[in-house]
Amino acid sequence: MPQIFKKTSLLTSSLIDILKIRAQTIQTARQWFKLHNYLEIQGPIIIPAKKEWADYLSTKIFNKTANLAQGLQPYDQALVEKFKKIYAFQPTFRLEKKQSQNHLLEYWRIEVAQNTRLEEVIKSQENLIEYICQDLSKIQNISFLLKDKLKRLEKMKAPFQRITYEKAIKILQKKGVEIFWGQTIEKESEIALSRMFNKPFFITELPFNDQTFFYETLKQKPQQTKSADLIAPEGFTELSSSAQRITNKTELRKKMQEIQVNPEDQKWYLHLTETGNPPQSGFALGFERLIQWMCKLRNIKQTTPYPRTNKCIYP
User: Fold this and answer.
1) Beta bridge partners of residue 225, listed in sequence order
2) What top-level class would CATH report for the domain 11-303?
């Protein structure tokens, strides 16, 4: 018998319970999407590599460099025009060079795209999380310790509180955190904010930068975008990110020029954006992070039987 099958100690009672919770969470999420008329789709895992990206995992295929996907975009935009409301549940790959308690090289996420404005997508996230939490709070056939942790999810009901990015920065500054307007709110700062809440909350109106250039900006605040990050409470971090995308090619080219993005590197994406397209928004929810928060796990590696990190890719 191969050695790998002899090591049954991998399946501890705790991990068995986590796998049951993962399975039920997937089933519950799919049920919610079905009830709300979303179509499940699948995007490519292997994508073209136009240039070197620091956080992409790359591979060689027939002497050509390809990357492993970090999400559906922009492939979802080619489908949402037809189906209006779509979602996917599939693996994502990101090269995390630092060891972390809430990052994996290979993780799963739920992604949604639909023809609507950001406000509706925010409501979709609230309702999805509430639906999952209410179901998981009643789960049976797991240890008393985990069942007790999941019991608190009964209180996770929408709507969730929203604070603007500007307000978040001011709160952190008052708490003594060295951060200024325009900076990304990093993990430690998210945790500091998170400890102030007992339900998930949104940070809205994130600043315009080279990672958010394809987001719509606010008319009265052109340096801020129509976007929102959903943060888990109780000392945890970001669960999902959402935004309303630019659908006007002229406006998108202007934004790319502002931050010196080469249009040639975004040719296919530009082809999808035409003047007059309906509003389009979406979100991406980290599945293991959701499990980690719901189960109050110290390390994200506890959410999966075969965690892939910068120090572990075996077995």
Assistant:
1) 217
2) alpha beta
